[in-house]
Amino acid sequence: MLLGNDIIKEAVQKTKQHLKAKEMEKAVEVSEKLPALRLAKLLRNFSSEHIYNFLQHLPKERILDVINGFAEEYAAELLELMPEEERLEYLAKMDSDEVADILQQYPKEKQEEILEDLSQSKREEVERLASYSEDTVGAFLEKDYLSVKSGSSIENVLAEIKKLADIIDHRSYVYIVNENNKLLGVCSFRELLFADRKAKIDSVMTENIYTAHIEDPAHDAAQRIRARKLKLLPIVDETERLIGVLSMETAGELLSNEIAEDILALSGVSGEESFFTRSRVSIKMRLPWMVGNIFLNLGAVAVISNFENTIAQVAILAAFLPMITDMGGNVGIQALSVSIRSLALGEVQIRDIKRAVVKEIKIGLVNGLVLGVVFAAVAYFLQRNLILGFVAGIALGINVLVAGVVGGSMPFIIKKLGKDPALMTGPFLTTITDITGVSIYLGLSTIFLFRLLV
């Protein structure tokens, strides 16, 4: 007897097999056991044309759910394969925020052409969402929420919720507004169930509400949801009128996307670049970083050049240089990633830099000691030279300590200066750890040169 997970795994394998064999009807039949998001994930392994042929065999509502499971770039690519009428039909059924995201993937002329074919209300909503800056909460607001007028009876509110159950997904909270739609309070669905049916909703609502204004940074609003463990955050305009909500799911995506972009930035890759970005654009995004790194690495080259005589006399020293610099870089990136992630999630503030430094010193002392001893033993085993092992171990241990402290503290310093830590710390960290490791290693080698020559 198959359990739930086993059924899903089996359905995934069979669907994949039928898709590869281009047995679309069989693939559709088996894929009925898969959630739309899981099916979308599976389909991303195939070409757009292959997926489009498969989608033609699905019910239209199922097609819409699957398309919504794709990244905006991929969804736009699939919609582009459809006849115009079919494409407009799906866009008309999508939520306005999803349409706004997909339209951004098309040229300006194509966007205007699609907007003209949407209903007036849908077009106005999409244009309004597109008008907000991408980093403001307004660009992510949703209209999927429940609101009732002040003075409504709880009995009527529950009846309204029941009526809208199939339309509104976010039913955890009910927002209370006045005749001008100004937000007055909020009440959870749970509280309504246990309240007196004849009472007015005003008697059970909470008036102190956490809100976000339309122009607030989206990142800050997402952090507020996470910190307060909210399922929805109401969004209001300058007159405190309720105009939408930010959901917990969207907040989670915002924070996770920001962390992913920061990690990409450490390697000199823009968060705006994706698998679907054109090669010409990707080259334009990546090349400046690589050119900049050439000049930053000249610092390490200059240090090595100063010790040319030492290396010439003891050539084996050069063999251990990559390991010392690479280890420092790896340790630094670990500390850097933790600090950037913590700053992005709001777990720490700029004032916590002292704690970050103290923590990395403790970690660096232990890790540096252990790694230094191991590396010293390896160097001695390979060359049977106790002094070489000592020098290599000391250099590696100190570099690990320095790399951890620099990687853990630099994001705080750069954030304090008002810059993006992810964009600036990666190249600087690599340069610092390279110079530190090389200087200590070759400096000690020069001091003990006469012992190394024995």
From TrEMBL:
<comment type="function">
    <text>Acts as a magnesium transporter.</text>
</comment>
<comment type="similarity">
    <text>Belongs to the SLC41A transporter family.</text>
</comment>
<feature type="transmembrane region" description="Helical">
    <location>
        <begin position="363"/>
        <end position="382"/>
    </location>
</feature>
<dbReference type="InterPro" id="IPR046342">
    <property type="entry name" value="CBS_dom_sf"/>
</dbReference>
<feature type="coiled-coil region">
    <location>
        <begin position="108"/>
        <end position="135"/>
    </location>
</feature>
<keyword id="KW-0175">Coiled coil</keyword>
<feature type="domain" description="CBS">
    <location>
        <begin position="141"/>
        <end position="203"/>
    </location>
</feature>
<dbReference type="InterPro" id="IPR036739">
    <property type="entry name" value="SLC41_membr_dom_sf"/>
</dbReference>
<keyword id="KW-0460">Magnesium</keyword>
<dbReference type="Pfam" id="PF01769">
    <property type="entry name" value="MgtE"/>
</dbReference>
<keyword id="KW-0813">Transport</keyword>
<keyword id="KW-1003">Cell membrane</keyword>
<dbReference type="GO" id="GO:0005886">
    <property type="term" value="C:plasma membrane"/>
</dbReference>
<feature type="transmembrane region" description="Helical">
    <location>
        <begin position="287"/>
        <end position="305"/>
    </location>
</feature>
<feature type="transmembrane region" description="Helical">
    <location>
        <begin position="388"/>
        <end position="414"/>
    </location>
</feature>
<feature type="transmembrane region" description="Helical">
    <location>
        <begin position="426"/>
        <end position="450"/>
    </location>
</feature>
<feature type="domain" description="CBS">
    <location>
        <begin position="205"/>
        <end position="261"/>
    </location>
</feature>
<comment type="subunit">
    <text>Homodimer.</text>
</comment>
<dbReference type="InterPro" id="IPR006667">
    <property type="entry name" value="SLC41_membr_dom"/>
</dbReference>
<dbReference type="InterPro" id="IPR006669">
    <property type="entry name" value="MgtE_transporter"/>
</dbReference>
<dbReference type="InterPro" id="IPR038076">
    <property type="entry name" value="MgtE_N_sf"/>
</dbReference>
<dbReference type="GO" id="GO:0015095">
    <property type="term" value="F:magnesium ion transmembrane transporter activity"/>
</dbReference>
<feature type="transmembrane region" description="Helical">
    <location>
        <begin position="311"/>
        <end position="333"/>
    </location>
</feature>
<keyword id="KW-0479">Metal-binding</keyword>
<keyword id="KW-1133">Transmembrane helix</keyword>
<keyword id="KW-0129">CBS domain</keyword>
<dbReference type="Pfam" id="PF00571">
    <property type="entry name" value="CBS"/>
</dbReference>
<dbReference type="Pfam" id="PF03448">
    <property type="entry name" value="MgtE_N"/>
</dbReference>
<keyword id="KW-0812">Transmembrane</keyword>
<dbReference type="GO" id="GO:0046872">
    <property type="term" value="F:metal ion binding"/>
</dbReference>
<dbReference type="InterPro" id="IPR000644">
    <property type="entry name" value="CBS_dom"/>
</dbReference>
<protein>
    <recommendedName>
        <fullName>Magnesium transporter MgtE</fullName>
    </recommendedName>
</protein>
<keyword id="KW-0472">Membrane</keyword>
<dbReference type="InterPro" id="IPR006668">
    <property type="entry name" value="Mg_transptr_MgtE_intracell_dom"/>
</dbReference>
